[in-house]
Amino acid sequence: MNKEKKIVCNKNDEFELEITDLGSTGEGIGKIDGYTLFVKDALIGDKVRVKVMKTKKNYGYARMLEIIEPSEYRVESECPVARQCGGCQLQHCSYERQLSWKEEKVANCLRRIGGVPVYTEKKYRKYKNAEEQQNAENTAESKTPIIMEPILRMDKPVHYRNKAQFPVGYDKDGNPVAGFYAGRTHSIIPQTDCLIQHECNKQIVETVLEFMKKYNVTAYDEKKNRGIVRHILTRVGKATGEVMVCLVINAKKLPHSEEFVEMIKNCGINLEIKSITVNINRENTNVILGEKVETLYGQSYIEDYIGDIKYRISPLSFYQVNPEQTKKLYQTALEFADIKEGEVVWDLYCGIGTISLFMAREAAKVCGVEIVPQAIEDAKQNAKLNNITNAEFFVGAAEDVVPTQYEKSGGRLRADVVTLDPPRKGCDEKLLDTVVKMAPSRIVYVSCDPGTLARDVKVLTDKGYEVKRVRACDMFGGSFHVESVVLLSKQDPVSLN
User: Fold this and answer.
1) Strands 229-236 and 188-190
2) What does 55-98 look like in DSSP terms, one character per residue?
3) Cβ distance 386 to 412 under 8 Å?
């Protein structure tokens, strides 16, 4: 009979701890007599002094009090509020180590959860040199190892986001402030000059705060459901230089709106302000945007490009926040798909049609499926904007639409290529069953969560598909997030009919 693991530390105990790994959300991991402690802001290789904050049966959480010996990977963060703000978790880690950790994260999930022998090149060399094949972690020895292709890295992992949402409130002296929420709270950390947001935001946000003070326009208090300005939303077309400024307000209209427009137009940025709008959200909710948008100046949208595809972006549109890396990601997906003349592609969880429109240039036909009606309207508009006529879009949950279309066809619906780009929760197994019935020769899975990616890959490999290529993409430098693309090819799919 196994003995329960004894908890060797208690709340408020202090220890010296060596950090030996990072958790899935970038926190440091160390052990005290085999008992695991998670430590925010600690890095592999750090020797730290910590205070235990919470204990559970098999693990606990500790706060870092002091860095006794810093890791070789530790760098000074350029962001003055990196430890307080909840936006970035790895600003204190060198970019090279961020990249290698993200690659390892994807490979580890595919091996341990997916049962697929995927390795980074560095890990595989170590694996081979140590002759550890007989003890490979949860991987069948008979399978041929798959070496990940090099991660798609950023040229500069700063100022890469084209969209920002600044919550607005008051400081202790009653002055309006804007910034970002501290991790897992709704406490605003004042900050107008974010390291990962576009540089123009500083002048825009400071101008909004100046407007609020000058004309006594109040900030929203979510506890009392009072006040006017809830959030400042900005969007920037990286390729076009067009800028949108949108105030989210708890009112039918913005007081002194004409003065607001003039102040924003003259805020001093060297980009073109194309759109000034208000979004009306009078609900007592933590959902940022309401449904109604009113244009105060210019257009209700801006335009931008990913590659040579033009997109029209409104305050409510979903649009990738890092278009430079998105281009690399989608070009990789297109390369993996290897679309041949006359082939049909189904793009599931298609959003505003970003992948669909990339692939429509190569395919005979693309069918996109997305649950959000506004996203499908945007997809249709973007297809028209680019003179793309061979893309068709369906509104609805992919796990409902695709099986329904399959049944309507009498089981004859086929696809040459299926792309999957689901949210973090991954794909519904009912959808994966139908995808296998459609018998695509290639499945390209674009993922923002390595754990659910690996779970879904296991389902597909159990049904006769084989992983051929894997590549990670760093879309969000300074954070724990990582995107990845996996190519699966059909061998002999199991019949589900």
Assistant:
1) unpaired
2) E-SSEEEEEEEEEEE--TTB---S-TTTTTBSS-S-TTB-HHHH
3) no
Buried b (16+ CB within 10 A) or exposed e, 264-279: beebebeeebbbbbbb
Same domain? For 429 and 361 the reply is yes
Residues 112, 224: one domain?
A: no
276: CB partners within 8 A, 6+ apart:
244, 245, 246, 260, 261, 264, 265, 295, 296, 297, 298
Considering the chain, what percentage of its residues have pLDDT values greater than 90?
89
Contact assessment for residue 96 and residue 75, using Cβ atoms and an 8 Å cutoff: no
> Could you tell me which of 364, 366, 232, 236 has the C-alpha nearest to residue 311?
236
Same domain membership, residue 63 and residue 93: no
Judge if 349 and 495 occupy the same domain: yes
pLDDT < 70 stretches in the chain: 1-7, 129-142, 492-497
What pTM value is reported for the model? Answer: 0.92
Residue 96 sits in a domain whose CATH number is: 3.40.50.150
Same domain for 255 and 372, yes or no, is no
Has residue 410 been placed in a domain? yes
464: left (phi over 0), alpha (psi -120 to 50) or beta: left
Q: What is the CATH number of the domain that holds 215?
A: 2.40.50.1070
Parallel, antiparallel, or unpaired for β 442-447 and 149-152?
A: unpaired
Q: How far is CA 200 from the centre of its chain?
A: 22
**Which residues lie across from 159 on neighbouring strands?**
none
Residues 169 and 152 in one domain: no
Check which CATH number belongs to the domain holding 47 and give it.
Answer: 2.40.50.140
Predicted confidence (pLDDT) per residue in 230-255, tens digit = 999 999 999 999 999 999 999 999 99
Between CA 43 and CA 70 the distance in angstroms is 8
Collect all residues with Cβ–Cβ distance below 8 Å to 397 and sequence separation of at least 6. Answer: 371, 428
> What is the pLDDT at residue 1?
44
**Catalytic, out of 85, 88, 194, 448:** 448
* Annotated catalytic residue 448: yes
Are both 192 and 264 inside the same structural domain?
yes
Which candidate, 452, 453, 437, 438, places its Cα nearest to that of 485? Answer: 453
**Residue written as tokens 């600690």?**
42
Residue 435: in which H helix or E strand, if any?
Answer: helix 429-437
Does 340 share its domain with 403? yes
How many structural domains does the chain have? 3
What is the extent of the structural domain holding 423? Answer: 89-157+322-497
In a domain, 181, yes or no: yes
